[in-house]
UniProtKB/TrEMBL annotation:
Residues 32-84, 161-207, 451-483 are annotated as: Disordered. This is RNA polymerase II associated protein 1. Its main location: nucleus. Residues 453-464 have a biased composition (Acidic residues). It holds the Pfam family RPAP1_C. Belongs to the RPAP1 family. Residues 309-374 form the RPAP1 C-terminal domain. Residues 995-1221 form the RPAP1/MINIYO-like TPR repeats domain. It comes from Gadus morhua (Atlantic cod). Residues 43-53 have a biased composition (Gly residues). It comes from the Eukaryota. Residues 472-483 have a biased composition (Basic and acidic residues). GO terms for biological process: transcription by RNA polymerase II.
């Protein structure tokens, strides 16, 4: 018998098997058929002409069924993508394919209007399996229905030639469809197939197979009665009429079944357009080609429950599918739904690649309008899905980039406008300009996307690789293609396509219209906001900045004759100055390049020397140019640069200040451009003052340029003007100044409705937010309540607090009711951090910090403020984990001043910890949870300076960030490196669990916990003690400070004490503090919130941590009660059975010392009800088996571990006498050999904490249990007590 080859066979074995097969003469399992190559002409495979040529082989296998087997669920496979491969018979394959279709047409068609029709009747046609005749009719119709007009005409001509006149005369004219179907029910059947084409059949004998199917259909019709035939006809017509292809199927039926002679003749009177003889190519009448000239049917409601595809007009507005618009608007076209007005996104994409220039421009402008309205949130309630996300997924970015390379200026301009609509948010830019003059408003976060899950997974995979095999960030970026880069970061994807060089070419060579210039400058500004690397690319682009400086920031220009001017070339533009300001914000080196290499210093002098009305520009444009020049100068002064220009323009600045003060006294509120110019001027003076404080040589130069007395007088006058203008420019419009300056109680209104921290809904991303294109989500920020609205008092309050903090004056308003109410709301708030909310949260964090700092200075002298010291301390504790990157100095200052200050912990000296103990005894009578906490709290209060030093030492790695943040905050301009803040990716400056930092740091340094206390790093024991003291103090008096840390995270962090060293938990101070913290974590009001099934932050699951604790317990615990109670906590019934399986299965040796006999059933330090371990009954059979095994083998004894002994008895007893089969009692009773265990197991009644055994027992078995035991053992019950 021949055998199949095996993997172990050698080449010689294979040759022997082949020889044996040839000698045996067995038939081949597969046949090789030579097919002639059609490309080389027909002929047999063995023809002489093609005998020497290489021909393809076709392998056919015998006994292979003709029909495909039905796709049924495959056997279970260990594959993560199994569900994506297996398809069941009842699943719609077309629907599954459409769901995963990523083609542009499929993606764009998913934007639909969320307006459902209200038809009273909806028919869902269900296609059933009927006879083969009906199936083949439908399949033939569908296979032929998609032919074009010309293909059907050619097929009809061929059919006419093949039939000939004789055959046509014999048959006569073909009857209509109704007649054909009616004749099918009669006795006379057609001689040949008229509905079957055989196109769906393969193989050389397709015609024979078609004839066989036709004969089968004829035989089936002969066996059917007239009534059955009419019933099948009715079903077939119902499918054709009620199906989803009602209209198209009828048209395809007429086009594919009927011959051309059967078509009704079309006369010129029936045509919508009367042809004339002089018209070209109208000699032959083609009615199908003239159908488009008929009048369109009116819009109607769709008889479906599905949402309709969204359509837009040329202004980007959404068109209702039921709206009847006139055709002269140009919104009707020859698409799939010609009766509906407007263009879908898919049609706009196709139109943008048209050969007609006007169509390309029109589609791009329409897309730009759609993007603008989508950013404004106008489609949020009308459309399902995000328009911007859908467009980017469909490839809009590369479509616009290709259109920008068009040679036609109109298309190029439309593409530039669309790119601006995609990248730039006018609301975001307006908000950033509005907040520029706020304290700290010069700094801004980079608009970088957050890391995605794919990037995090790649980083996790590389962590296991050695350093030499890891790829750098630059290498990873180079390996990605443009599509992947653009999918994660839109701006970075555009930069990879050479966008900057193209923009330079357009600005330099094409010299487009003013709107296109403004669009391109706005795009460059948005790219510069992306990151410092992107700003450097803009600066390094050849000739780009030279074109901007020479064309849009000239040193001399003439007044334009027309307004607005037809060209902005040769005129200063505010957009160009804003681009320079954003570039200067990216770093001090970039700012130095602008000032020295590009001639920005000379432009500043040229633009600021004359008054705005003397700049030969339109008044509004002149004010904007002047304001942007002041802002650019302020950014340069924040680095200590361009300060010598201050000496040159000192007289100009002084006249500007005096003119503004006169305008404020004589006239009403300033206009918006005037206010922006004044605020920019004050921001400049603030930064120049900071630089002057750091540069003594600059101050000396000022004294030399003028007399000492004159300089002092000028400084005083400027100081008064600055203070007054600073407050006036920060006030909302129409707000009086005099009452505020005289009434201190009205200086701090603090409306909580404007707060971003207290906003419960959060300032999250909008409906059109795209992760790869982050923004501020500031749409409508001027209208609704918020921190940045023009009527918000926060800019004034922050400026006032800065002033008070600078002069260290005492302000009585810190204890007013609005302030206290606002601070209390902030303590209870939980703000959401995102790219959109970080901008406003940073400013409000600054205000909260200033209030706390002022309270710290005032509290020792003002009893009214000292009365609320506890509230200010809560605000400081809540503010620490909120502070964002770039605010490390604020966190460091709070840690040094307020957080560990005794003055802000009044509980430590207002009655002392003893008063707390008495209050707890009265409140929790019979459950003194905090009786031993008092001495620990007193010791912790004494050690507050040491606690502060401990935490500052563990935060020493943040020293560079703290120093950089301090330089920027204090205005030490020579040391400020950049006004671009760090990325938001890592989160806030301090983690939410920063109080646990010493424990986590020690665990990471020591590793597996094999070291002893003497072997730990120096000061480790003291650091752990200080950390536990601070945690105890917070848990008792500042519970809200740790609300961001979940209870399971607290338990996981405290568990690091057991895993850091082998005997650290045995140290007396550490053990006392851990006992106190364990009691606080297991209080009844907190125990329900302890969910161990949720993975703690930084861990895959709590079960992994519990397994490590079990290993450490078996190795080094020596039966320590604290460690044992720590492990008993996760063994409650409500938690996963996996941890109990680990104890009773893998670590059964831990049961010998999990608790000592001297303790009661539940240790008083744990204070857990016994019912949390025994109720409800255990349902895990493997765990019940382990319970029984540990009891039978003696691994679990009552003398050593009474709690788990009682728990095992309770669950096994409930299982034995449950509603299950009685036979489960017999093996238990037969295998028990431990003395007294069978009595405890059968007579167990229930757990009881006060009992000597820890549970109640029956004196004798109840009757129902006795009967059940008799049935199980098969013996009469002689006694209900004792051992059975």
């Amino acid at each position: 018998m021949l055998q199949r080859p095996k993997p172990s066979d050698s080449e010689a074995d294979l040759l022997k098997e082949q020889e044996r097969f040839l000698v045996s003469g067995a038939p081949l399992a597969a046949k090789v058929i030579r097919r002639p190559d059609k490309r080389r002409g027909g002929g047999d495979g063995g023809g002489g002409g093609g005998g020497g040529e290489c021909q393809r082989d076709i392998v056919t296998i015998e006994d292979l069924p003709d029909d495909m087997p039905s796709l049924t669920p495959a056997p279970s496979k260990k594959s993560c993508s199994k569900e994506n491969r297996v398809r069941f018979e009842d699943q719609d394959t077309e629907e599954v394919l459409d769901k995963h279709d990523t083609h542009i047409s499929a993606v764009l068609s998913r934007i639909v209007v969320s307006i459902y029709c209200t038809a009273s009747l909806v028919v869902h046609a269900r296609v059933k399996k009927i006879h083969k005749l009906n199936s083949l009719v439908i399949s033939s119709i569908l296979s032929c229905g998609r032919r074009s007009i010309f293909a059907r005409q050619i097929a009809a001509e061929k059919l006419k030639e093949a039939s000939g006149p004789s055959g046509r005369a014999a048959r006569g004219p073909s009857p209509p469809v109704e007649t054909t179907l009616r004749e099918a029910s009669g006795p006379r059947l057609p001689s040949g197939p008229r509905l079957l084409s055989g196109e769906g059949l393969g193989g050389p004998d397709r015609s024979a197979e078609t004839l066989r199917i036709h004969q089968e259909n004829q035989a089936m019709l002969q066996t059917m009665s007239r009534g059955e035939i009419l019933e099948e006809q009715r079903k077939l017509l119902a499918q054709l009429v009620l199906g989803p292809l009602m209209v198209s199927l009828g048209a395809m039926l007429r086009a594919s079944i009927l011959t051309p002679e059967a078509l009704p003749p079309s006369s010129e009177e029936d045509l919508p357009l009367k042809p004339e003889k002089q018209w070209v190519h109208m000699g032959k009448l083609e009615p199908d080609k003239l159908e488009w000239t008929r009048d369109l049917p009116g819009p109607r409601r769709k008889g479906t429950q599905k949402a309709m595809q969204a359509r837009f007009d040329f202004a980007g507005s959404l068109i209702s599918p039921h709206e009847d618009l006139p055709t002269h608007l140009g919104l009707h076209h020859h698409g799939e739904e010609p009766e509906l007005a407007g263009y879908s996104l898919q049609e706009l994409f196709l139109l943008s690649r048209s050969q007609v220039i006007q169509q390309r421009s029109l589609s791009l402008n329409t897309l730009a309008s759609i993007l603008t309205k989508a950013r404004a949130g106008q489609f949020a309630s009308a459309l399902s899905g995000s328009v911007m996300t859908t467009l980017l997924d469909a490839g809009l970015l590369f479509l616009l980039r290709f259109a920008l390379d068009d040679n036609v200026e109109g298309v190029m301009a439309a593409a530039a406008h669309a790119i601006r609509a995609l990248l730039v948010s006018d609301q975001d830019e307006a908000f950033l300009d509005h907040s520029f003059s706020w304290p700290g408003g010069l700094a801004s976060f980079p608009l970088l996307p957050c890391s995605t899950e794919e990037q995090e997974e790649e980083e996790e995979e590389e962590q296991g690789l050695p350093e030499n095999m890891r790829l750098s960030a630059k290498e990873k970026e180079e390996r990605r293609n443009d599509h992947d880069v653009a999918r994660h970061d839109v701006v970075k994807g555009l930069l990879r396509t050479g966008l900057l060089s193209r923009l330079r070419y357009i600005l330099e060579v094409v010299r487009p219209s003013p709107r296109v210039v403004q669009d391109l400058l706005a795009v460059l500004t948005r790219i510069s906001r992306h990151s410092s690397h992107a700003a450097t690319q803009v600066l390094d682009c050849p000739r780009l900045m030279d074109v901007v400086m020479s064309e849009f920031l000239p040193t001399s220009w003439s007044a334009p004759s027309l307004h607005p001017p037809p060209s902005v070339y040769g005129l200063p533009l505010a957009g160009a100055l804003k681009l320079l300001r954003v570039l200067a914000t990216s770093g001090r080196h970039a700012c130095a390049r602008l000032l020295s290499s590009l001639g920005v210093r000379e432009r500043l002098s040229r633009l600021l020397s004359p008054e705005p009305g003397e700049l030969l520009l339109e008044s509004g444009q002149a004010l904007r140019v002047s304001a942007e020049a002041f802002r650019l100068w302020a950014v340069a002064a924040s680095y200590g640069q361009a300060c010598d220009t201050y000496i040159e323009l000192y007289s100009v600045l002084l006249r500007a200040l005096q003119a503004v003060t006169r305008d404020l006294d004589s006239s009403g509120p300033l206009l918006a451009p005037q206010r922006q110019r004044v605020q920019a001027l004050l921001a400049l003076l603030t930064q120049v003052t900071h630089s002057a404080g750091c540069h003594q040589e600059l101050h000396a130069a000022m004294l030399r340029s003028a007399g000492r007395g004159d300089a002092a007088e000028r400084r005083g006058g400027v100081g008064v003007c600055v203070v007054r203008l600073y407050l006036r420019s920060s006030l909302p419009p129409h707000c009086p100044v005099r009452p505020l300056l005289h009434d201190s109680s009205s200086l701090l209104p603090f409306p909580r409705s404007c707060s971003a921290v207290c906003d419960l809904q959060g300032h999250g991303p909008g409906p059109e937010a795209v992760p790869s294109l982050p923004g501020l989500a500031s749409a409508g920020w001027k209208d609704g309540p918020g921190l940045a609205v023009p009527s918000s008092p926060f800019p004034l309050l922050t400026a006032l607090c800065v002033l008070l903090d600078s002069i260290t004056g005492i302000h009585k308003g810190l204890s007013s009711k609005p302030v206290i109410g606002y601070l209390g709301s902030c303590c209870r708030a939980t703000p959401n951090l995102s790219n959109a909310s970080a901008w406003v949260l940073r400013h409000e964090h600054h205000l909260l910090y200033l209030l706390v700092r002022l309270a710290h200075r005032v509290a020792p002298k003002d009893p009214a403020v000292a009365r609320h010291a506890s509230l200010y301390h809560q605000v400081a504790m809540a503010l620490l984990p909120w502070l964002l990157p770039g605010s490390e100095h604020l966190a460091h200052d709070l840690l040094c001043s307020v957080v560990f200050s005794k003055d802000f912990l009044p509980e430590s000296h207002s009655g002392g910890p003893e008063a707390l103990e008495l209050a707890e005894l009265k409140l929790h009578a019979g459950a003194p949870h905090l009786q031993a906490v008092g001495p620990l709290l007193r010791e912790a209060c004494v050690q507050l300076p040491s606690l502060r030093g401990c935490y500052l030492g563990h935060l020493a790695h943040l020293e560079p960030s703290v120093l950089g943040s301090k330089d920027a905050y204090l205005g030490r301009t020579p040391w400020v490196r950049s006004r671009l803040l760090p990325e938001l990716g890592p989160g806030p400056a301090l983690p939410a669990d920063w109080p646990y930092l010493p424990l986590v740091t020690l665990y990471e340094r020591t590793g597996g916990g094999e070291l002893q206390v003497e072997e730990l790093p120096r000061g480790a024991l003291q650091a752990v003690t200080h950390c536990l003291q601070w945690l105890l103090l917070l848990e008792v008096w500042r519970e809200g400070a740790l609300k961001a840390v979940t209870p399971v995270a607290k338990l996981a962090r405290l568990s690091c004490v057991f895993l850091s060293a082998s005997d650290l938990f045995l140290e007396r101070p550490v053990q006392r503090l851990l006992w106190a913290l364990l009691r606080l974590l297991t209080r009844p009001d907190r125990l329900d919130s302890l969910d161990l099934d949720v993975a703690p932050p930084g861990l895959a699951s709590f079960q992994d941590l519990f397994s490590a604790l079990l290993v450490q317990y078996e190795a080094v615990s020596f039966g320590d009660p604290l460690f044992g109670c720590w492990l008993l906590l996760p063994l409650q019934r409500r938690y996963s059975a996996a941890m109990k399986l680990a104890v009773f299965g893998e670590h059964v040796g831990a049961l010998r010392s999990l608790a000592c006999s001297g303790l009661p059933l539940v240790p008083p330090q744990l204070s857990l009800p016994l019912e949390r371990y025994t109720s409800p009954p255990e349902a895990s059979l493997p765990l019940l088996q382990l319970y029984f095994r540990s009891l039978v083998t003696g691994g679990l004894l009552q003398a050593r571990c009474p709690l788990l002994y009682t728990v095992a008895l309770a669950h096994l007893n409930a299982f034995l006498f449950s509603e299950g089969p009685a036979q489960q009692v017999s093996p238990v009773a037969q295998r028990v050999r431990v003395k007294g265990l069978i009595d405890h197991l059968l007579l167990f009644r229930g757990p009881q904490q006060d009992s000597a055994l820890g549970f109640h027992t029956y004196q004798q078995l109840p009757p129902d249990r006795a009967q059940r035991l008799e049935r199980a053992l098969g013996t009469p019950d002689s006694s209900h007590g004792g051992t059975h």
